[in-house]
Write a structure and sequence with these properties.
The chain has 241 residues and is of the alpha+beta class. Helix content is 36%, strand content 21%. The relative contact order is 0.12.
């Protein structure tokens, strides 16, 4: 048996009582598991753990082919989440981030730094009391920076536009269309340099937040090969309207 820690990204129903779960693990990267019988009447507590961004301890069978579905012997909560499952705003953010990661992460190799980054930020979201409405933007900005794709310099009055094509803040609006306007670039600059406690003090309109979110998703699609559309985006925008 192989013991792993995992982060649930996405799941779909399979058959009458089973689930196919896409999970990012600490030792084997992204894996696809078929979990039999978990939707049965006696397994509701188990099935409730297969939700976006839930943290699991997994005991899995070691035999696997690259790209093939794996099987679990057992799983349980790694860290019981206190508010994320019950707070509608946090749950929708988890759905959105889970879908982004599901479409972004394909590697089946261990990446300890990325796993620790995700694990830490999920716990931060669970513990947050203020500034929750900006967490998904903060997360996207921090994740891109963690992956080395954002940005090449700092936002300033002299460099007020973010050039998404080249990944840098620039002094003038580029000739191409893949750039953020001044207010959106300024909001991005604030989020890149922010700490989590700063989110409650960052003021931006709903339109500015939505524009930055869609721009960052475009940036992920262009530079990191993420598939679009993100279906949960409309739900996220509606909840935070």
């Amino acid at each position: 048996m192989v013991k792993l820690r995992g982060i649930v990204l996405h799941s779909i129903k399979y058959g009458e009582t089973s689930v196919i779960a896409y999970i990012y693990t600490d030792l084997q990267g992204r894996q696809t598991y078929i979990i039999n019988g978990v939707r049965g009447a006696t397994q509701r507590r188990k099935s409730s753990l297969i939700q976006p961004l839930f943290l699991l301890d997994i005991e899995a069978y070691p035999e696997r082919r690259r790209g093939a579905m794996c099987r679990m012997k057992e799983f349980c909560a790694n860290v019981p989440l206190q508010s994320l499952p019950f707070d509608v705003h946090k749950s929708v953010i988890a759905l959105f981030i889970g879908e982004v990661l599901y479409k972004l992460i394909r590697e089946e190799e261990q990446n300890e730094a990325l796993f620790d980054f995700l694990h830490r930020h999920i716990l931060l979201l669970d513990e947050m009391q203020h500034g929750v409405s900006g967490f998904h933007l903060y997360f996207l900005a921090q994740l891109a920076q963690h992956l080395g794709f954002l940005p090449g310099n700092a936002h300033s009055a002299e460099y007020p536009y973010f050039d998404m094509q080249n990944g840098v803040f620039v002094p003038f609006a580029p000739q191409h269309s893949a750039f953020m306007d001044k207010p959106t670039s300024a909001l991005l600059g604030m989020l890149i340099g922010a700490k989590l406690d700063d989110l409650q003090h960052i003021r931006a309109s709903r339109e500015q937040r939505n524009l930055l979110m869609r721009s960052l998703l475009d940036y992920y699609c262009t530079h990191l090969g993420m598939a679009n559309p993100i279906r949960s985006l409309a739900v996220l925008e509606e909840v935070f309207a």
